[in-house]
Amino acid sequence: MKRILAPLMLVVAVAPAIMPALPAMAQQETSDLNRVNAYIRAVTTMTADFTQTDRNGQSLTGQLTLKQPGKIRFQYQKGVPLLIVGDGKALTMIDYEVRQVQRWPIGNSPLGALLDPSKDLTKFAKVIQTGDPSILSIQARDAKRPELGTITMIFNRDAGGPQGLRLYGWVALDSQNNRTAIRLTNQRYGVAVADSAFRWTDPRPKGRAGGG
User: Is this prediction's pTM over 0.85?
Assistant: First the structure.
């Protein structure tokens, strides 16, 4: 009986010490989400090299260019006839090999959480514990619109980065469970980026140019 009661008494004894920690954890999570909000609003431009890995483990590389609000360009490695461009309103994927263009509102993409500085992550995101204090991981998902998918943004805590953060990459999961991971290197913030970087040539018949 003594061996049974001892652990029970220990739980009762430590419970008061654990419970006050819960509000502190909630405050820290809110603080971290606000910091990511501030990061997204502080980053006017960014360029980086990226490696994209799909759910089958296949990888592509390329150059990422970002300009807030809502402008992004994924320029893939030489020999890959794909281009993804966000012009501030919509994301467009152009496949030059088959002359196909797909377009959808940025707000209907998991990337909307990263590309819309007006969004408040405290309303629809949570901190994912990683066990590494140097890494901050945020998962954003709109529970009212699950068809938009989920994005998990991963940041390195870096005093030299905007708001003390540096975007390491993200993992996007769409409503069909298609998983895409992006890892960034050689991030450069505040560089000059012309709006022409977010224009593209329409490969479809009649040569109608998209975005200029």
Answer: no
- Rounded Cα gap, residues 72 and 198, in angstroms: 7
Exposed e or buried b for every residue in 87-125, given b needs 16+ CB within 10 A? Answer: beebbbebeeeeeebeeeebbebbbbbbbebebebeebb
Quickly count: other Cβ atoms within 10 Å of residue 171's Cβ: 18
Q: Residue 101 has which token pair?
A: 């263009």
Nearest to 72 by CA among 34, 117, 35, 37: 117
Torsion angle defined by CA atoms of residues 34, 165, 146 and 51, in that order, rounded to the nearest 10 degrees: 170
pLDDT in tens, 140-178: 998 777 777 899 999 999 999 999 999 999 999 887 788
Domains and CATH numbers, the chain: 27-201 (2.50.20.10)
Crossing angle of helices 2-18 and 21-42, in 10° steps, is 40
Is the preceding omega at residue 16 within 30 degrees of 0, hence cis? Answer: no
Hey, CA dihedral for 149, 48, 136, 154, is it positive or negative? positive
